[in-house]
Amino acid sequence: MKMMAGIGIFIVLGLLAAYMIGFQPIFGEKLPFDDEQTGLKDRIVIKFSHVVAENTPKGLAAARFAELVKKKSRDRVEIQVFPNGMLYSEKTEVAALRRGDIQMIAPSFSNMNAIDPAWYVMDLPFAFRDQQDVNRALQGKLGKRLFETLEPYGMKGAAYWSNGFRQMTNDVRPLRTPDDFRGLKFRVQPSEVLERQFNLLGASTISTPFNEVYRNLEAGVVDGQENTVSNILSKRLYQFQRYMTISNHSYLGYVVVFNEEFWNGLPSDVRLIIEQALRETTLWNNQEALNNEKGLRALANNADMEIIALTENDKALWTEKLNPIYKEFAQTVGPDLMEEVRRP
Ligand code: LMR
Predict the structure, then answer these.
(1) In a domain? residue 6
(2) Is 50 exceeded by the pLDDT of residue 99?
């Protein structure tokens, strides 16, 4: 009996000693100290979701941005990039960002007209001559106005990235003149301007998420689609498309967006680092997106794809045919923004 009491007192004293030196697993207040966990609570993780392949202007820019932020913040900020729509498609990424499930996205402009019709301006055919023309507009009144449309939705526009200009592909016939489009069916991004563009050319459209385009073409649900060289190449869309016309008929760009509440909650030094990294990435991206040469060569070397160049005369016919869009969408887009892209 005496021995039992002795053991009991020993256990109680042992527990007391353990408690006093700070090891309290049972009461759960403090966890054992672990060197490797130091600073973990200060780590900032930003989940960045996008829908294209890693070896495209947007995919490469996202990876470069993540690397720059890691370096500049000395590992304090981690940008976790989720490419290829592995987390969200373009249909669900805006809602996920607004809920705060992810903190950063870079949707293409055509997906943003669901937020505000002002974004239709970026889909207008032949609205920009080249990347410099686009930069001029986005760095001026137009870019500022488009960022402003995001604010009521708790989103912060932080940069514009580029993927260059769209080209036409299809599997039926070479597309040279507007008449060549008659009766064909094209996949488009979700945009009334893009639908109207094809309607004016005598073609019909369906809108599907980017990561379904390969299957759409494979199954023959559509005859063709419009996209940039890097997207056509990286998603192997050329496998089911015999013809590609270098039309440069419209621009495909991205708006880099943060969840605004998350952004405002970041320490100011972290915001500065991110802004600096974004500026550097954006400059690099604009160069990268222009560099289509390698991609074009890769497509030209693919024996099954015929690449068609438009003459000035062909282009004039396309422009003339598509011109009514400007009038039709003038009210939707607003006359002030229309002026920012309309060439004299
Ligand atoms: C598309 O055709 O949907 C793509 O251009 C999307 C993207 O983000 O480039």
Answers:
(1) no
(2) yes
